[in-house]
Design goal:
11% of the residues lie in helices and 24% in strands. The chain folds into 3 domains: 28-83, no CATH class; 128-143 and 241-306, no CATH class; 150-233. It is built from 5 helices and 14 strands. It has helices at 48-55, 63-73, 104-110, 142-145, 253-256, and strands at 28-32, 42-45, 79-83, 91-93, 123-127, 134-139, 146-148, 165-167, 183-186, 201-207, 212-217, 235-238, 264-271, 282-291. 20% of the residues are buried.
Length: 306
């Protein structure tokens, strides 16, 4: 055996080509109740981390199923898992209708053409309460992205420092002039459009009967006016998530080449309750300038997204 007479580094080369690694041959199958994931579909799971990522963490309703599967994965890396359908399962959506989309194959076969019950525009991918945490916000036009309101929608009465409400001439909710969640600014002097770029407020409520707008400081999330707001001060409003995008949605090259206009839309998916990411209001996904045209393509032939 080689040895050294003084401290140093000894390099040895070993031939491992004739060693056969031990490979797990135990394959298991399991069906149970889980918080999320595809229904009635066999999914190959190789680790507990992948089990959590695919079917969610255990809770008081399914811990027996989860830990039974996790226990098997402690000894093997090959488990076929099926999330069983329950009578209470439904996909969260923006219409309030109750319907079930089990998995991607079910969607492609029965819903990909837009056949969604109850006029729903957005449906959670996962059936069950997991999808109830989601909020989808869209910005369909440049006006919805940002605008300075006309004088008919300006401040109707002065506001003092610390106030969390302001009365405007007309909130005009029917025309979506001011919406809950909008980021607003007030002009620094009455009857002008000079705005202080350091003062932002987020609308939390609107009373269409009294034209009272309730707000908090943005992004702080609390507090009222930082300075006095004069009567007839103008208002600038922006979509709540405008900061996440470089510019307003417009017209895609695909639509422009076909004499189309204003087909782009920004979309944001938010963990409204914090039940998915652990942080209330955390933005999960953003889609920048997606075309409203179902046949729109990029110059490379892919579905259009800036």
């Amino acid at each position: 055996m080689a040895f050294q007479v003084s401290p140093g580094v000894l390099v040895q080369e070993r031939d491992l080509t004739r060693i056969i690694p031990a490979v797990s041959t135990s394959i298991g199958a399991f069906a149970g109740e889980f918080r999320k994931g595809p229904l009635d579909e066999v999914v190959s799971i190789s680790s507990e981390a992948e089990l959590v990522d695919t079917f969610g963490k255990p809770d008081s309703n399914n811990f027996e199923y989860f830990f039974s599967a996790a226990n098997f994965l402690a000894y093997s890396n090959s488990l076929r898992v099926v999330r069983a359908t329950q009578t209470s399962h439904a996909n969260a959506n923006d219409s309030g209708s109750s319907f079930l989309i089990k998995n991607i194959d079910d969607y492609d076969s029965n819903y990909a053409g837009g056949e969604i019950f109850g006029g729903a525009n957005y449906v959670a991918k996962t059936a069950g309460a997991h999808g109830n945490n989601l909020l989808v916000s869209t910005c369909p036009s440049a006006t919805a992205y940002s605008q300075e309101l006309a004088s008919g929608n300006s401040v109707a009465s002065a506001g003092a420092v610390g106030d969390t409400t302001v009365t405007v001439d007309d909130v005009d909710l029917a025309s979506n002039v001011i919406n809950v969640g909008d980021i607003i600014q007030f002009s620094t002097t009455a009857a002008t459009t000079d705005f202080d770029d350091g003062e932002f407020y987020r609308v939390t409520a609107i009373n269409t009967g009294t034209n009272v707008v309730t707000f908090v400081q943005h992004p702080r999330g609390s507090g009222g006016l930082k300075r006095i707001i004069l009567d007839n001060s103008h208002i600038r409003r922006r979509w709540r998530y405008y900061e996440l995008f470089d510019k307003a949605p417009g017209t895609s090259p695909y639509a422009e080449a076909r004499a189309g206009v204003n087909d782009e839309i920004h979309i944001v998916v938010v963990d409204e309750d914090g039940g998915i990411s652990g942080t209330k209001g955390d933005v999960l996904e953003t889609y920048d300038a997606v075309s409203k045209g179902s046949d729109a393509k990029t110059p490379q032939g892919e579905p259009h997204e800036r």
